[in-house]
Design goal:
This protein is an alpha+beta fold and about 650 residues long. Helices cover about 45% and strands about 10% of the residues. It has a six-stranded mixed β-sheet, sandwiched between helices. The protein has a three-stranded antiparallel β-sheet with strand order 3-15-16. Strand 1 and strand 2 form a beta hairpin.
């Protein structure tokens, strides 16, 4: 009996823990983000969070599953800055699906095989239903455009037609596909606790032989705002500013996020947010006095790619952390060493006539004070990409240590301009200055403001999420239908394939394929209904009822694309509440899109996380006896 090979299947604590952790972030899904306070019972300190990544960053994770979850979303967030909530939700939903399979006596190997096949089906749906960005939003002259309320832009219906044609093709493919997919030829599973980022392939369909029509960047950004319209407006403005600075690239729209800098200013209303060319940084009163003395001058700049301190060593020479010298003599020697290093630093900078030092890492307070004494401005925490931009424009060469500085490494032509004095009674004085090379470097600073200090981090996260969505859309050159449409198509496809499995007689390689695919589809339905509930217009029961009704209505229709393309987006009933961008007459005011590469990687990472914990449970927690026959064949070794 197959169930006899599953030992202690009720003890899969890892999957249960994953499901519990995923439940923490349900309120962060959808366009209506909800803020949460996290309070430390020991210190009394609190943090205001509005994203899956930030809530895990502030939690004290003591279990192995929690650490693994955090590493996974951290790896995803580092590249995409968005989609972590979707990743974790699906990991939780599919972990519950795996638990259900185990309770039904389905082996680990059959679960992994069928779920791998399911994710391949979903990726195939992505491939067939993606919408090319070519010419998107530029078809107003054809008389098929309408004005949106969000950003006051023109929206074209052309992408909707393209999506319908592609999705109709998908329906035909689903009806004709009665063969079991060969997973060995589709997706090779490579599980690891370190989620290395694979380069996304451009899944766009056939190449375009004609001269491409370049998309309307503002239109694409509007569809990717996902409820953050004001923040996305800043992203569009930054993109347009970059395009003006790089006129040669206007023919091929791009958005270089590596040259975008954010500067947060507490105390000002959010309406004061703006976009400015150059690199704006906040300086202390002492640094500001040096900046005042240097303004309107052409400065010489040194670029330090690391910390500006005597103890800094690059990665190859890092010393073990946590080691201390306890003797007084050693401390005295260390102090003397630092003083000697600082004297040498000052001599090098003065000899090269350096006025400005841009540091990628940190600079000690003593170092900053010493440089201020010699009228040298030091700016720390400068992004590596910004450092490289200054290097390209000024002729400077970034170095790791100040001892490497030579005349050929020093850049020229940098200007420091006082942008705004932010000093006020009762608050630490600071001044914002604009550092620029005077050339078309493409550097742009986005100023983010709020009267609520704790909200600034969330606003900055929202900005980077929107910026990365636009960046990946222009990079992928394709988009997915949003507002739950892609998820519904995947559900429909999974259920269709699961239905084919039940119609077959014995002899299938995986007799439980249909059950597993159905459970995977249920996880996606749970995701869609949760986002609907977060709009505030649905109960959980009502949301699931609406989704089920839509799926039933589409069964038997050849025009499945037309049915799903307007899902939750049109109509005068509450069914239109998936996204609140609606016209008063019920017509669609905004077409929602999702990023192909972001969604694809989030879903893949979610399933990889489930597989890793599933196998770890089976190998470690449940105590499988390696001497038992048939045990190894039900496991896939890492």
């Amino acid at each position: 009996m197959l169930g006899s090979t599953i030992i202690n299947h009720r003890q899969h604590y890892g999957l249960q823990k994953l499901s519990g952790l995923a439940g923490i972030t349900h309120s962060f899904l959808g366009p209506n983000k909800k803020y949460k306070f996290i309070q430390d019972d020991t210190s009394g300190e609190s943090a205001l969070v509005c994203s899956c990544f930030r809530i895990f960053e502030n939690l004290e994770l003591t279990c192995a599953v929690g650490q693994l979850v955090y590493e996974t979303i951290q790896a995803h967030q580092k590249v995409y800055k968005t989609g972590s909530g979707c990743l974790l939700f699906l990991a939780g939903a599919w972990s519950r699906a795996a638990l259900e399979c185990l309770q039904r006596g389905i082996s680990v190997s059959h679960i992994i095989s069928a779920m791998s096949e399911g994710i391949d089906m979903c990726i195939d749906v992505f491939r067939k239903c993606n919408i090319s960005t070519e010419g998107m939003g530029v078809a107003q002259s054809e008389g098929c455009a309408e004005t949106s309320h969000g950003l006051g832009l023109q929206l074209s219906k052309t992408p909707i037609v393209e999506a319908s044609q592609a999705l109709s093709h998908l329906q035909g493919t689903a009806n004709a596909d009665h063969k079991i997919l060969n997973t060995s030829g589709r997706r090779k599973i490579k599980l690891s606790r370190h989620f290395c980022e694979a380069k996304s392939k451009n899944l766009s369909t056939a190449p375009q032989p004609h001269q491409p029509k370049h998309p309307n960047v503002a239109h694409i950004a509007e569809g990717l705002s996902h409820g953050c319209v004001d923040v996305m407006n800043l992203v569009v403005e930054a993109s347009q500013m970059q395009s003006k600075n790089n006129e040669q690239d206007i023919s091929c729209p791009t958005f270089d996020i590596s040259k975008i800098v954010t500067c947060v200013l507490p105390g000002l209303p959010e309406g004061h947010a703006c976009v400015l060319p150059g690199c704006i940084v906040l300086l202390s009163a002492e640094q500001a006095s040096v900046a005042h003395s240097l303004k309107e001058q052409h400065l010489k700049v040194a670029l330090i790619n690391g910390d500006l301190s005597d103890t800094f060593r690059h990665l190859g020479f890092s010393r073990p952390a946590g080691m201390r010298h306890v003797s007084d003599q050693s401390a005295l020697l260390s102090s003397n060493k630092e003083e000697k290093w600082m004297v040498k630093l000052a001599a090098i900078l003065l000899n090269l006539e350096v006025n400005l030092v841009l540091v990628n890492g940190l600079a000690g307070e003593k170092v900053i004070q010493l440089c201020c004494h010699h009228h040298i401005l030091v700016v720390e925490k400068v992004k590596a990409s910004v450092l490289q931009a200054f290097a390209n424009e000024t002729g400077g060469v970034p170095v790791t240590y100040t001892t490497q500085l030579k005349k050929q490494c020093v850049g020229t032509g940098v200007k420091v301009v006082i942008w705004r004095d932010l000093s006020s009674p009762g608050r630490k004085s600071s001044t914002a200055v604009n550092i620029s090379s005077g050339a078309n470097s493409g550097l742009v600073t986005v100023i983010l403001t709020s009267c609520v200090h704790g909200k600034l981090q969330a606003l900055e996260d929202q900005f980077w999420a929107c910026a990365h969505r636009l960046h990946h859309a222009l990079k992928d050159k394709v988009l997915l239908p949003g507002a739950g449409v892609t998820e519904m198509l995947c559900v429909h496809h999974l259920q269709k394939q699961a239905g084919h499995c039940t119609e077959r007689t014995g002899g299938a390689a995986n007799p439980y394929r249909g059950v597993v695919l159905h459970l995977m589809a249920d996880g996606l339905i749970d995701y869609i209904s949760t986002v609907m509930v977060n709009t505030g217009r649905f109960t959980k029961v009502k949301a699931r009822t609406v989704v089920s009704q839509q799926l039933q209505d589409c069964n038997g229709y050849l025009g499945i694309a037309a049915k799903f393309s307007q899902l939750f987006l049109e109509g005068e009933t509450e069914d239109s509440a998936f996204f609140p961008a609606m016209k008063s007459d019920g017509a669609t005011a905004l077409k929602i899109y999702d990023n192909l590469s972001v969604k694809q990687e989030a879903w893949r990472k979610a399933l990889d996380l489930v597989f890793l914990i599933l196998q770890t449970d089976a190998e470690v927690i449940t105590g499988l006896d390696q001497r038992t026959d048939g045990t190894k064949e039900n496991l896939m070794l890492l």
